[in-house]
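Good morning C.,

I know you're traveling, so I'll keep this short. The sequence:
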Amino acid sequence: MNFKKVGYYLKKGFYYIPRITPGIGLVSLSIRDWKTRRYNPFPYYNLRKKEDWKVIGKYGIQVGWLAFAILKAGVTYKGAQSLINKISNSKDKTEQFEGASNSNKKDKNLEEKTLKLDCFK
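The tokens, ready to paste straight into the viewer:
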């Protein structure tokens, strides 16, 4: 196994992580694109060139990825909040139920006695 190649690919992988991270990938793409188009006149993109369509498509993918990440974070936050609310509401109900069962100790003793009597028949 050639460790130089492994190190090379690990290094490339670490450099690739910012490109797939939502938001950071968009900034990274815009910086890389700015460096290549720095000396071009104002209409940077010529829609007749295939390379420009590729870059515009990459921007679209990055914006979509960022929108998906924001939507996913919002749904996750709402789900966590609803679970927290359900848990806090269930604690109140269990405390009330335990309090109600403690007040009926006489009924429990009566049920235990009737069960014991039924077993001896």
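Safe travels,
E.
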